[in-house]
Design brief:
The structure is a single chain. The chain is of the alpha/beta class and 200 residues long. It has one domain: Nucleotidyltransferase, domain 5 (2-Layer Sandwich). The chain is built from seven helices and six strands. A six-stranded mixed beta sheet has the order 3-2-1-6-4-5. Strand 2, helix 1 and strand 3 form a beta-alpha-beta unit. Helix 5 packs antiparallel against helix 7. It is globular. It starts with a strand and ends with a strand.
Length: 200
């Protein structure tokens, strides 16, 4: 069975990477309890699931309240619909944060994640996926049958390793390239929902 995920990334102007949010598409909306209990979830990822595999305002609300401390901070957002809901506005207000929404059509110029980070992350996920599948082929070279699709744990491991491989220097450079206010400031955050079916 193929498992599709949405990946949401959040970075900070001082080079810090917040845990990557992985949203699994599950038929019943939830990862089965017995499966979830067996998952080894690294510290640099957070796992959620729903029927669509897309981010929702509830998932984003839970993520923000888990990751961000209650203090004055600046969040740089794109125009995604989940960013504009009352629930998210209330969460940002409760966290004493200020939201800057990038105007439509300007994301590629002003979104730090778009500058360097997402392309680097995608490249690394591809590298780790190819490495895993090559090893799988080598192990099965003397056997018959088709290769198995990546399971949830393998997807988690690939995303975790790829995110870990994105350097703090690259994150800081992304803020510099977009001219974001407060480069190297620990209270300037940027986040963005990455593509669905990032890893198949």
């Amino acid at each position: 069975m193929n498992h599709f995920i949405t990946v949401m990334l959040m970075i900070r102007a001082d080079g810090e990477k917040m845990p990557a949010l992985l949203i699994f598409q599950e038929k019943n909306g939830q990862i089965p309890n017995l499966v979830r209990e067996r998952l080894n979830i690294p510290e640099n990822v957070i796992i959620k699931s729903n029927k669509s595999g897309y981010i929702s305002d509830q998932i984003l609300n839970d993520y923000l309240r888990t990751i961000l401390r209650r203090e004055n901070q600046l969040l740089i957002y794109d125009q995604a619909g989940s960013h504009k809901t009352i629930m998210i506005s209330n969460a940002i207000s409760d966290l004493d944060a200020t939201k800057i929404v990038i105007p439509g059509g300007c994301t590629k110029y002003l979104q730090p994640l778009d500058a360097l980070v997402i392309a680097n992350f995608k490249s690394k996920t591809t590298d780790f996926r190819i490495k895993f599948q090559t090893e799988q082929i080598e192990r099965r070279s003397k056997r018959t049958g088709n290769l198995k699709a990546l399971d949830r744990q393998q997807l988690i491991n690939i995303a975790s390793k790829a995110w870990d491989a994105v350097s703090p220097q690259l994150v800081r450079k992304s803020f510099e390239l977009t001219g974001s206010y407060g480069v190297n400031h620990p209270k300037i955050f940027s986040h963005q929902v990455n593509m669905k079916k990032l890893i198949i």
